[in-house]
TrEMBL record:
Record protein name field: Velvet domain-containing protein
Keywords, ordered alphabetically: Nucleus, Transcription, Transcription regulation
Principal location: nucleus
Cross-referenced InterPro entries: Velvet, Velvet_dom, Velvet_dom_sf
Locations listed in the record: Nucleus
Superkingdom of source: Eukaryota
PROSITE patterns: VELVET (PS51821)
Velvet domain span: 8-219
One Pfam family it belongs to: Velvet
Region (Disordered): 226-256
Length: 256
């Protein structure tokens, strides 16, 4: 957790992880394939006055929520190296195994063409990597400034962490926005499709924010595998006859 001072108004801003992602299925390199992190990352912003007193969020206008934004970046588990880009395998040129034969004078030479264009790099972290702040109640009924990231996906499998950076949007787009606070998530794993253990039941915090208007997809059941039965949250008699049916509320509150 990192804290930064910003003047004016000489306040201190601090980010904390209210909900860490645990895992996800890799989304690959398709344009429309999305495999969101489970559960969705949720970040909270704490604002303090210069003397360290927390700003009273119950007073309207104490914090201009419309200017608050948090950006997400993908990093290695040790938090040292960004993993923002990955080579798109569709743009990788395969070197032919058969060399080109050229005759020069009395000599015949085998030449292997090595002038291969480099593959094109694309974003490894997909989805909405920036989130605006919302003034919402937490599980204890207290107000907080929350940033939810419900549709982040990663193209390649492996162990990662997320770095979140808080900025205040300036009044003019020509004015730079310094990073005022940062925080890293706990490590999480992105699985290959065949190894993914399944999505978990939605957390109480996800449900709490959903009920207050945040577009977080809710899952009423725990999916333990594409070809396995579901561990259901409803009573035994309420289970579906088919063990492969998911009961999910989408971000508009409808069941699919």
């Amino acid at each position: 957790m990192a804290v930064s001072n910003y003047c004016p108004p000489c306040r201190t801003y601090e980010l904390s992880m209210e909900q860490n992602p645990i895992h996800a299925r890799m989304c690959g390199f398709g344009d429309k394939d999305r495999r969101p992190m489970d559960p969705p990352p949720i970040v909270r912003l704490m604002v303090r006055e210069a003397d360290g007193t927390p700003v009273d969020l119950n007073v309207p206008g104490n914090v201009d929520i419309s200017q608050c934004m948090v950006m997400a970046e993908l990093f290695t588990v040790d938090q040292q190296q960004p993993c923002s880009l990955v080579a798109n395998p569709a743009t990788t040129t395969v070197i032919p195994a058969t060399p080109h034969v050229r005759t020069i004078g009395d000599s015949t030479m085998s030449i292997l063409h090595l002038a291969v264009p480099p593959p094109i790099s694309i974003r490894n972290l997909t989805g909405s990597t920036g989130a605006s702040g919302d003034l919402l109640k937490d599980l204890t009924g207290n107000y907080g400034i929350f940033f939810a990231f419900p549709d982040l996906s990663v193209r390649t499998d492996g162990m990662y962490t997320l770095k979140f950076s808080f900025i205040m949007l300036p009044d003019s787009p020509l004015v730079p926005s310094p990073v005022l606070a940062t925080v890293f998530s706990a490590p999480f794993e992105i699985f290959h499709a065949k190894r993914f253990p399944g999505m978990i039941k939605s957390t109480p915090l996800s449900k709490m924010l959903f009920d207050q208007g945040v577009r977080i997809p809710l899952r009423k059941e725990t999916r333990v595998g594409r070809n396995r039965a579901l561990v259901q949250s409803e009573p035994e008699g309420a289970k579906q006859e088919s063990g492969e049916v998911e009961d999910i509320e989408d971000m508009d509150g409808k069941e699919t």
